[in-house]
Design a protein that fits this description.
Layout (H helix, E strand, L loop, with lengths): L2 E6 L3 H16 L3 E2 L8 E6 L4 H14 L4 E5 H5 L1 H7 L4 E3 L7 H9 L5 E2 L19 E5 L1 E2 L10 H5 L3 E2 L2 H13 L4 E5 L14 H9 L6 E4 L7 H11 L8 E3 L7 H7 L5 H14 L4 E8 L6 H14 L3 E6 L16 H24 L5 E9 L4 E4 L5 E4 L8 E9 L4 E5 L2
Parallel strand pairs: 1-2, 1-3, 3-4, 4-5, 5-6, 7-10, 10-11, 12-13, 13-14, 17-19
Antiparallel strand pairs: 8-9, 15-16, 15-18, 16-17, 18-19
Length: 422
């Protein structure tokens, strides 16, 4: 029996992988360490989506390699040579190879480097897990995607779309709920294309999960806009269920159709506009989250202004803003790059606009009263989510897992603040 420290970074799919890796570790007779200093072996589930993130992973690998080390996740699969450069003896475990977790760990504990990067997992439903949050069930519905984005390294790590069977997912969600979860996250590399390889689709999955009789909430994870025209009418219908958070994460990346074409995104700015218009028309209080990349190679000032115009018009509640960074192995990395100072200036302009819109959107909630499901303890407050997945903070003595009636009396660009209504 060994004590193993597991830490994870990146998207919700990476956190789901970490939960399953931890479950396999415990089922295999090992224990989870409370910190890396007390561990016999360290395991890090990595992310490589951005340059800054990859640099953070390298720094963590350097710090963790004083003990036997397993590097799992996207960086291990997409850039194994980078990992080996900084930790030659580390074992490697790919994001679609976690069924090999115990073999990799046991070999590493014996001083033998083990590399398992091939896609050997046919599904990730039904695997044991140790949850990062006891009331949040992160359920992976597929691996990989159908896109060929020129800036993205995730495809190199997670491969082509492999949707998991609808019935297996419903059974997994049912298990999560019976085990105490109040909030279910349906996650994958791209939820928008779920099921297109097995004769089903995301709206059908959302409807089937909503039919599970217990009381819980569903967060539908990130979906790329290119698949929305096919499914948006049925998806609107599936979102009518009160169990579904009125929330969409649809990464548009740019407001310029020229840039989107060069990114090989497969959609236009108009596609995103239409999604926002349709969902906000049907559901007056609806949270839109998106992603923007500033400074993609070839982005002109006019292209950037098109992005500013799109954000000003659609007024998303959340924008994950990134300065473009070259990721090894991607086509965009080979193109002429925009000067760093120019990218920085554009990013600052957009950052200020995003924060202004977020604050104005959140201020519209002041005076609202409604039920909030509390899902996380922060330093001195408890955070919950209302029906539109807005973060709601209260200072009263509620516990994670509670639901309570809250009245909002203050807002910032990051969230809503209120008190329990008597």
């Amino acid at each position: 029996m060994a004590k193993i420290w597991v830490e994870s970074y990146g998207c919700s799919a990476s956190f789901a992988d970490a939960e399953m890796i931890s479950g396999l570790i415990v089922n295999g007779g090992h224990t989870l360490a409370d910190n890396s200093r007390d561990a016999d072996l360290n395991l890090i589930v990595t992310c490589s989506v951005k340059d800054a993130t990859a640099n953070k992973m390298v720094n963590r690998i350097k710090r963790l390699k004083s003990r036997p080390l397993v590097v799992a996740g996207c960086l291990a699969k997409a850039e194994p040579k980078s990992v080996e450069k900084f930790s030659p003896n580390a074992s490697l475990l790919g994001p679609n190879s976690i069924g090999k977790t115990l073999q990799v760990i046991d070999n590493t504990l014996l001083g033998k480097k083990k590399v398992e990067l091939e896609d050997t997992d046919t599904t990730k439903t039904g695997l044991p897990k140790v949850r990062l949050n006891p009331i949040v069930g992160i359920v992976e519905i597929a691996s990989g995607c159908m896109s060929e984005c020129t800036f993205c390294q995730t495809k190199l790590a997670r491969g082509d779309l492999q949707s998991y069977r609808l019935g297996d997912i419903v059974r997994q969600v049912s298990y999560e709920i019976k085990d105490g979860c109040k909030e279910i996250w349906l996650t994958s590399t791209d939820n928008g294309c779920y099921g297109l390889d097995i004769g089903t689709n995301l709206p059908e999955l959302v409807s089937k999960v909503s039919d599970i009789p217990q009381e819980f909430m569903i967060r539908v994870g990130m979906m790329n806009p290119m698949y929305m025209p096919k499914i948006k009418s049925d998806l609107l219908k599936s979102f009518e269920n009160d169990k579904v958070f009125k929330f969409l994460h649809v990464p548009v990346q740019s407001g310029s159709d020229k840039v989107l074409h060069e990114m090989k995104r497969g959609h236009t700015a108009g596609t995103f506009r239409d999604v926002v218009k349709r969902f906000r028309s049907k559901f007056p209080r609806f949270t839109i989250s998106t992603d923007i990349i500033v400074g993609f190679p070839g982005e002109t000032k006019q292209d950037f202004e098109s992005t500013v115009e799109l954000i000003t018009e659609t007024r998303p509640d959340v924008v994950n803003l990134s300065k473009y960074s070259q990721r090894p192995g991607t086509p965009a990395a080979e193109r002429i790059q925009i000067p760093v100072a120019e990218v920085k200036n554009r990013s600052k302009e957009l950052f200020d606009l995003i924060n202004k819109i977020a604050l104005e959107n959140n201020q519209e909630w002041i005076g609202w009263s409604g039920m909030v499901l509390f899902d996380e303890q922060t330093d001195n407050m408890v955070r919950g989510r209302n029906f539109a997945y807005k973060p709601v903070f209260v200072g009263e003595s509620v516990k994670v897992g509670d639901k309570a009636l809250v009245t909002i009396n203050r807002a910032t660009n990051h969230g809503l603040y209120g008190q329990i209504a008597s």
